[in-house]
């Protein structure tokens, strides 16, 4: 029957039976019911048959009897025919019943099968695990809202657990879609509530993310600039390589630079130059664009440059730093920043958008320390057909009120910056006034009249004249402004311009056509109130360029003469102060210092292997000697027998070699390397030709490199294996090694005995001889200690093999004995004196035993027992020191010296790019004088080149 049950209904029946067999009764009843269904009969047999059905049964029965009588001798045909007929009838009845069933395909879309339920359950479990393990919150947010975060996380985990439990109950009344929607909706509601409660914290996190985003953008810009520079250099190198392959020499001819570009370079050189004899206020001419905020000054500059190159905003401050724009004529309309090699095609809207974005980003990066405006100049060049040659500086607009999003000193900072540029006696002031507002509301005209009261270098520009006419402004009032009769300020010329229709997407050509049409149809012309030469930005740019070059020609030679005099004075001071030294600026001095430092690193290779090993051995023993005596030798030597001595020594040596000894050895190696390197630096500083100007820089470089240096990690593992193997070897191979170990033990004990006696002398005070000859006296505490020492000496004299600890009876006896002298002490005081007294006694006994051990090698070699186990111990330590110093010497010469050299080079490379470091570490009049000379010579040379080109153009 199973192969016949292919319908969906059959699948549902069996699935239901497998899950709830009690619903259908016994298995036999279930099969009987199914067979009756598939046989085409009614399931309920208690119902009476219809008449047609009854007649059909009788007819079939008669036919069956006739066929049986006729075929009584052919039973096999009867059986075969019955089987075939029955199967055909059953198949036909099954097909009729199946066709009569309703289409149940929609159940597949509504009721997921078991596999889908299992997948959904698995997904929910994985989601719970990921949420529990991977939810990360900003640490600062955790600190502020830790309780709320934990509450939200617990709630979310509980909701997920509930959802998983619902998914496991596939036959429950809650459907998959309802559970999913409920979980999502509740999660969204709780998440929204949580975020609303912590809005302030979220804002702080967002501000932090914004600052990080700005840093990433700035890094990308630096990367892009470096990439452009490298691509340019690579292109030039490929070109030269191609010429060399063709047997031709690369051309050394320099590209002829335009006059305005040469002049712009001079201005850039002068931008940061300021001395007691030359002020930045006396710099060469440039056009300074000033005006109230949103008066249209940036739009005027864009009309002159014939491109919309500045970011724009609706009523907000966009210009936050001075922007120096060098305009020059060229075949292509392009823009380029002074410190970048990328050219922006101003005929393409995509490049224009990138340029505006770059300008805005540079302005934002120049503002630091919570300020709103910056004095850092952004320099760019714009070239194109028909552009007038000049240099303009766009300044932040003058404001009347400081808003809440600005620094409190913004208004004053803009005013001071604007006055500094306008006070330059060679600056041309382009004063921008908004014509659509009342003239009495202007702030800029009073500042201009204060800086240039005579008006000999001021050009007045009235913008937004079209809006003024639309607002029914009195034409006579505009005429008075353009005739200089309304404002108290004076000017060389007065101009009226229209810089747009208030649409941000309008091109320069569209604005220019609109401007020309406006003035052609304006009442100002028809009624003869304004002269034709006083309108349009085209006439304005021609007038500004003419005034600019006129002032340049009048002042440039005076500036060149001033720099000649300054150069002469500086050169005279150098000859008188440093007659035998060559002028070197900070960059040149830094390169000299770099060479000297790297030469000293090379000198490390000249140290002999024996010197390295001797220095390393002494340094290692200096660091580990206290541990050897206090934690290994003395505890073992105070034991009762030679067997316990050897056992204690083996255990302590192995523990020491596995834990502290390798790291102590590496520290000793690093200290030895530093000592030797500094020794070379000190030796070089004492040479006759040493230049002290580099000392501060060398010390800073070496110190930073050594702080960065880390010994290789694998050195510890190598040393641990070597030291463990060496310390396990107890064999003294010959008399020479025995004598060496004896001397090593003797010198070590002598040093410890000397230190102990010094400590004891300090505790007991001056001796009788010192008190008699030098008039020294004992303190009360020293008197008590001397009394205790007398009693302790008696105990040690009576028992030379006394254990290292005093018994209770001995402590009591000492206290009672000194009480007869009216001295009262406690047990702790007695133990404090006992420690150096017993150690002195023990070390003196060890010295006496060493004399016997000198002659005991023969007995040791024969295998007889001796009391010289301490000699064997120090032989093992001595051999360990030798192999360790040898291994460290190899590591220093093969690896660490080169790694130190690399780290010093990295520090030097970082310092070479850090001008602040150079100024801090290379100081003195010699450096500043050389820097001033270099700067003045550069400015003078560029001025002379510019004057020469200017005279040729005349």
UniProtKB/TrEMBL annotation:
Membrane topology label: Single-pass membrane protein
InterPro entries in the record: Dynamin, Dynamin_GTPase, Dynamin_N, G_DYNAMIN_dom, OPA1_C, P-loop_NTPase
The enzyme's E.C. designation: 3.6.5.5
SUPFAM superfamilies the record matches: P-loop containing nucleoside triphosphate hydrolases (SSF52540)
Coiled-coil region list: 213-247, 890-953
Swiss-Prot/TrEMBL catalytic activity: GTP + H2O = GDP + phosphate + H(+)
Recorded GO MF terms: GTP binding; GTPase activity; lipid binding; microtubule binding
Domain called Dynamin-type G: residue spans: 281-557
Subcellular location: Mitochondrion inner membrane; Mitochondrion intermembrane space
Hydrolase is among the record's keywords: yes
One GO term of the biological process aspect: peroxisome fission
Protein name per its UniProtKB record: Dynamin-like GTPase OPA1, mitochondrial
Organism: Photinus pyralis
Taxonomy of the source species: Eukaryota, Metazoa, Ecdysozoa, Arthropoda, Hexapoda
